[in-house]
Design a protein that fits this description.
The chain is mostly helical and 223 residues long. The protein has 10 helices and 3 strands. The protein is globular.
Length: 223
């Protein structure tokens, strides 16, 4: 089975515009091959689609909760580590088109690459088949994750600060590693460090990137 066919099976949709899906599966290192661009544009729209559908789902799933509890739930569910785990569990890494050199360096295993690819294929699905198709796929692959989230997670920055204070360590230090993109669609890459431990996160807003970095670091720190 070709990568496109396997991806369509995963998504549960036969694409009218298969070039959209081919683009969604193309890492920027392989862009231009066979006339296919990278998945960055589709990741941009897929990110918004995922956020909308998961927010909608949380309102339905937790009807008595207010924004203070729903916000951390949403941030955790749509974070890069969370989306990367879903992408990996569904075999998306093997379907990506990556330049040989980058493939040897293990780019397919990077959380950011996997999360971006998942958002990109969701963006492609949305553009080809509409919001309902995207909703059905997201609910299918994220159902277990949402059902297990009984207690609202703590804000990642707060949780990381508490982790450091309990161990008498200096408070987490955040640093902007990269800021790029136009003013209407910026991209921030943030590094956070606690002692010798470091985490990185990226998002379209500085605070969201800090949250992503804190969540990434919490994922590798001992409990």
């Amino acid at each position: 089975m070709s990568n496109l066919a396997a991806a369509q099976t995963l998504l549960g949709h036969q694409f009218a515009r298969p070039k959209l899906l081919a683009e969604a599966l193309t890492h920027r290192s392989a862009a231009g091959a066979k006339g296919v661009g990278s998945n960055e544009r589709l990741e941009f729209i897929g990110d918004r689609v995922v956020g909308l559908i998961v927010a909608e789902w949380l309102i339905e799933r937790f009807p008595d909760e207010q924004e203070g509890a729903l916000g951390p739930r949403l941030a955790a569910l749509v974070s890069k580590p969370s989306l990367a785990a879903i992408a990996e569990a569904n075999g998306l890494a093997a379907l990506l088109s990556v330049a040989p050199g980058e493939s040897k360096r293990g780019v397919r295993t990077q959380a950011t690459v996997l999360a971006d690819a998942l958002e990109a294929v969701i963006g492609a699905l949305y553009l080809d088949a509409g919001l309902e198709a995207a909703r059905n796929f997201i609910r299918r692959v994220m159902g277990d994750v949402i059902e297990k989230q009984f207690i609202p997670p703590k804000d990642p920055k707060t949780a990381l600060q508490e982790w450091a204070l309990k161990r008498a360590l200096a408070l987490p230090a955040y640093e902007v590693v990269e800021q790029s993109g136009p003013s209407h669609a910026p991209k921030f890459v943030i590094k956070v460090s606690v002692g010798d431990a470091v985490g990185r996160g990226e998002a379209g807003a500085k605070r969201a990137a800090e949250q992503a970095a804190a969540l990434a670091l919490l994922g590798v720190l001992p409990p």
